[in-house]
């Protein structure tokens, strides 16, 4: 059961210049939407970040190659081709050949260069992909192109996600100008039944210069998709795409100093964070949504190290599953986090508003009842103050439950 | 249930120069052995390594201070004072004061300097230690000193370990000379009910120079206790001590070139490895003992990174619990291991003798039946060949079961 508010937004803004087509191509299962095509306007800027996993999938390699080729040309990415059911990972040269084949088929149909098509795959690892099914599904996909297909697309890119993940907002940047931001994501554990996992697609109708868009995407990803963890496993297929379709050169946002930049960035961040935390809320076996907020660090790196150590610790995560205020486990994880500037006697921990550990020792005001009460909440913030400086960082995670083991142990038996 | 052969050795060699006393001091529970004193001969060399956790416990701080003070003197460590039931961790200045108090009490009784006593604590974190109980137990402990108490000591230092952990061997280094090696350890998860965890004490009657002994201990620990993982959590109290009591200056082993060095080192390694792997076999909820052996690396660091990534992955561990040959998870973990020299297309994986993945792709000879069969074994070696060079490294771990979640989630409820 996903944790907390996971409903799609009431209003999902269409983004001018982005059309989405969907079909049930039978990549792995019959009669289930599994193929999605994004068509982007000719003037759209497109930025992309891909998994750091060195055993990355064939489509990831192709996305990188295509983007590199486009960077040296006057052309831009025009189509995203996304399938679920098969990740086309650990499939060697044959996998690469098949991914390229699907890009070519689409490129031929719509008359663009092959490197203007970006392929993405998610699903089972290590099986040869049914590229024929994908190619045969293209016509249906193209026939269904529409600006209003965001929610259907969020459903179609699911593997074992229990909910579609959509976020949408609009922002007024000027008296006369407002922009829309809409995005979808998928992921429910880093790899669930070998599902190579995280995908995110966000678009805005704001005009943003390509070089700035890429820089924004890296920053936005670092504050959202790179700040969530369910089981610490990084998939072979993770990709995130940011699209800006605006064509108004007079208002082109081309630097962080542009008057529209900050407010647009915040709107994008809101959408990214929502898409990322939805993945945690839908985490495998999750019963609690946990925010690990580290303050008082000497550096952001220290805060990040500490936050991840706590968020990854199976002992911390099982304690939260059990609603057990087992603060020694949190302190131990802080200690082995590898953070450079750390003094055990300066570390304080509060759970929501309950002070548990103050400067390395049990807080004198703490009672077991308080601890039990706060731990039983479905959404909890672990505040860790390192007492060393002003830096801060936040990571989002969920608890570790019996259900997690069941999901990951039992799916094939 | 511990996995595989976990019986203590038939012969546990006494080590001349090492006497052990044990008593039920009532540190936390009544009528349970919880206090152990080691008395070492005046000429013994003593080496020690301590946890890298920056939130380390008060006794760990004291051990480091005492060893530093002794290094600049002509005196050596004469007593180890070990309690279970309370880790004296996250206890601040009061914890430090109490640990020092127990050292002083023992030092006064046996007429040594306080820094010749090394304190070790294991048990619950964050509670003030009952130092009075320890001090009151010293007389009984000293009265029971004997060379034959290794097994009883292994039992006494347990927290939630289900088995005592002992290893013992003897080795002929020369026609006329043989040495004995005996050791004990404790640990069952990195922290089980907040139990601050790993302790190891190994002694030999060989004569080894102090500087070499420390160097050997670091190397031995890196190949044993630093190559096991259950849940990836590093405790606040981990310590390992190596004692060499031999007094024969004519045969003093003072360099790695000494003719007795290699064969003695191998005997020590055997004991260290046994003590370390016993901890994994007794791992929380473990149903399988897994050896992750990485070969063909360009560097040992790469091999170590890969081995730990695989051994830590909850997805790999749950797959082993389920006896599911889910090799995609292994390949994904290899990919995100952070190893510097890695080419996905060169990675091969075999489980025991079953080739699963060859150079990044499913091995053509592989069948699901073979995979199922090998995965159902209680002891499995994951062989990962990186195909990049000659380096190798090995890590030992166990699977992740429902029982792990139960043990760590339910203990206080």
UniProtKB/TrEMBL annotation, chains A, B:
Catalysis: reaction(s): N(2)-acetyl-L-ornithine + L-glutamate = N-acetyl-L-glutamate + L-ornithine; L-glutamate + acetyl-CoA = N-acetyl-L-glutamate + CoA + H(+)
Pfam families per UniProt: ArgJ
Site entry: Cleavage: 196-197
Enzyme Commission number(s): 2.3.1.35, 2.3.1.1
Gene3D superfamilies, sorted: ArgJ beta chain, C-terminal domain (3.10.20.340), L-amino peptidase D-ALA esterase/amidase (3.60.70.12)
Self-association and partners: Heterotetramer of two alpha and two beta chains.
Cross-referenced PANTHER family: ARGININE BIOSYNTHESIS BIFUNCTIONAL PROTEIN ARGJ, ARGININE BIOSYNTHESIS BIFUNCTIONAL PROTEIN ARGJ, MITOCHONDRIAL
Protein name from the UniProt record: Arginine biosynthesis bifunctional protein ArgJ
Originating organism: Psychrobacter piechaudii
Source species taxonomy: Bacteria, Pseudomonadati, Pseudomonadota, Gammaproteobacteria, Moraxellales
The encoding gene: argJ
